[in-house]
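Work Package 3 committed the consortium to producing structural models of liganded targets before the mid-term review. Because experimental data for this complex are still outstanding, the team generated a predictive model from sequence and the ligand definition alone, so that downstream docking and mutagenesis planning could proceed in parallel. The input record is reproduced below exactly as it was submitted to the modelling pipeline, together with the SMILES string for nicotinamide-adenine-dinucleotide.
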Amino acid sequence: MELIDIIPVVRMVLSADGLVCCQGFLNTSEREFDSLEGVKGIDNSITKADCVELRDLDTVEDIVQQLKEQLLNRQEVKAVVVSDFGAILVDQPVETSQFSPVVEGRIIIVTGGAQGFGGGVAEELFAKGAHIVVADLNEEVGNAMVCKLNSQGQSNKALFVKVNVGDSGSVCRMIEQTVIHLGGVDAIISNAGILRAGGLEEMDADTFELMTKVNYSGYFYCAKHASQVMKLQAQIAPRHFTDIIQINSKSGLKGSNRNFAYAGGKFGGIGLTQSFALELMPHNIKVNSICPGNFFDGPLWSDPENGLFVQYLKAGKVPGAQTIEDVQAHYEKQVPAGRGCRVKDVAKAILYVIDQEYETGQAIPVTGGQEMLR
Ligand SMILES: NC(=O)c1ccc[n+]([C@@H]2O[C@H](COP(=O)([O-])OP(=O)(O)OC[C@H]3O[C@@H](n4cnc5c(N)ncnc54)[C@H](O)[C@@H]3O)[C@@H](O)[C@H]2O)c1
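The resulting structure, written out as tokens with the ligand in place, is given here.
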């Protein structure tokens, strides 16, 4: 068995009375384990008496059986030592809480979580007690987000993992890092996405393929690798529902003029969502897409140099518009709710999806009425 198969099982067995999270994994040999006290990275208060040991693991059942036997009559376990691998350091379950019970203690990966919708969602879910993995291509901005979250004095943790969602191997490593550092995956929010607009005459094959790789294949890679861990968790804790959530777009519900590479990938994403949902519901893994309207306050639209408002003003795309405000007002008028989509709107939809046990395979519009389901 590999570590990625062992750690989520251990976490789920230890989570019988409330979700626990791991504090990381220590690659100590068994000989070193005798002197766990004082090993760098380990809480000095851990002694051998605080640990349980697992040996000769061939199957999930071996882990469950050995762990359950050793947990009888024990108050708490601070580390699980796995022979030939090392020590899984464990947090204690949170008992009382000021957080939202929907996501508290859950381990949630947000791809593209450094900024924009993903950054805002990471902040919202962290504030509600989730452990957050900010998984992004942009190391500098992603690390800054994680520092910001971890400096808020909360007991839950944020972790940065560098990933390119357009590369299956990179997504696989992101899941491994999440499992090794935190213990499992309770939800993945496949949010990282790119937009390069253009009609048939301008769009070249390389740009089309890049967008498809990130926006469409990236979602497949996230679902493929995260569901492996989630399935294992469901084996141990059949009432523990997990979530794969794709941040789609209103362009996944209606064609977008001169923007087909984006709309096509998003339409395809809904096909993936419906199909993954059918395959994964037997494992209590829900799969849903959320389709936000335009996020006017985010960098894609409002960046003062390259944002779409500036670009559309310069290109004269909005007849009669003299200023950025004129362009923005033009787009806001197209929304029945009279404003753009905000992070809080998307976060509420995510919380609904995670809270709900009887909803899967949906594409939920969060568009202020601009796009409605037929
Ligand atoms: N901005 C909008 O108006 C809007 C509207 C509807 C839906 N969406 C969707 O919301 C999601 C986020 O959009 P946003 O506007 O917040 O984007 P953004 O450009 O502000 O942020 C995207 C983040 O994804 C990261 N990223 C880009 N490519 C990546 C890759 N290959 N691997 C890992 N990370 C990568 C970037 O570094 C960045 O941090 C996208 O899926 C987008 O399609 C956006």
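Reviewers should note the following from the model. The first strand starts at residue 22 and ends at 26. These observations will guide the Year 2 experiments.
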